[in-house]
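Run log, item B.
One chain of 80 residues. Sequence copied directly from the ordering sheet:
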Amino acid sequence: MAGAVPPGPRLRADARRNSEQIRSAAIGAFQGQGLTVPLEEVAKAAGVSKATIFNRFGGRVGLIEAVIEEVVARELFALI
């Protein structure tokens, strides 16, 4: 979107990669096990520490907020 303000400071390449790995792992975990899956499992699947999830997303709620639209979209697409 032209003229959009980025949501936060620019991330280093490794931090951006970690964030994407966490998002991907969370989407898979939430789809397979629900929103209460232990964050340790998400972190392990992403190849990061649980602390990295808290640093990047603020915890479970922030992580859910970051991926919920994609989780719901995938669930709806699976119904088609």
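Observations after the first pass:
- Residues 58 and 72 are 21 Å apart (CA to CA).
- The first helix runs from residue 13 to 33.
Flagged for discussion on Thursday.
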